[in-house]
Design goal:
- A hairpin with a 5-residue loop joins strand 2 and strand 3.
- By secondary structure, the protein is largely without helices or strands.
- It has a domain of 40 residues.
- The protein starts with 8 loop residues before the first strand and ends in a 43-residue tail after the last strand.
């Protein structure tokens, strides 16, 4: 049995692939091309859904 630790992974999010979920071997990952998975498929990056409201600012702009 083995395990590894990626310096770009933080709480399941990849900092190297612009905030996508960490999926070892995905395009942009430090493992791409270095390992072969049993199914032979290179996973694509998947990003978390944005919160409702679009830009994540949390409401209308402040009044002045």
């Amino acid at each position: 049995m083995s395990s590894w630790n990626c310096r770009y992974e933080s709480d399941g999010i990849c900092r190297k692939v612009d905030g996508a979920f960490c999926r070892p071997g995905m395009k942009g990952c430090i493992l791409v091309g270095k390992v072969v998975f049993q199914d032979g498929v290179v996973p694509s990056p998947v990003w978390p859904e944005k919160p409702e409201g679009g830009d994540g600012e949390g409401g209308p702009p402040p009044r002045r």
